[in-house]
Specification:
single chain, membrane, CCB3/YggT, mainly alpha, YggT family protein, transmembrane, transmembrane helix, 3 helices
């Protein structure tokens, strides 16, 4: 029973990793002007992803030192998720 709960949580964390990667790729596309926020679909997707990820990324941004124009908070969040998953995997599969 508890293994199934941990398995579902691991799956949700992996989905969150995918959402972070999509956000990162979309931010690159927007910053290099490949896609434009004047497109309603892109703007809606950008607002939705920011609404999901900003509550998780903002505390990391407050703690991390300023590195100029590079935001390392998504990478820190992905590494944190990977560490959590590695600690949870023995509870599910072991």
């Amino acid at each position: 029973m508890l293994g199934g709960l941990f398995n579902a949580l691991i799956y949700l964390l992996q989905v969150l990793q995918t959402v972070i990667l999509i956000w990162f790729i979309l931010s690159l596309l927007i910053s290099f002007n490949v896609v434009n926020l004047h497109n309603q679909f892109v703007a809606a997707l950008w607002r939705g992803l920011n609404a999901i990820l900003d509550p998780m990324l903002n505390p990391i941004r407050r703690i991390m030192p300023h590195t100029g124009g590079i935001d390392f908070s998504p990478m820190v969040l992905i590494i944190g998720i990977m560490v959590i998953v590695k600690f949870m995997e023995p509870m599910v599969y072991g």
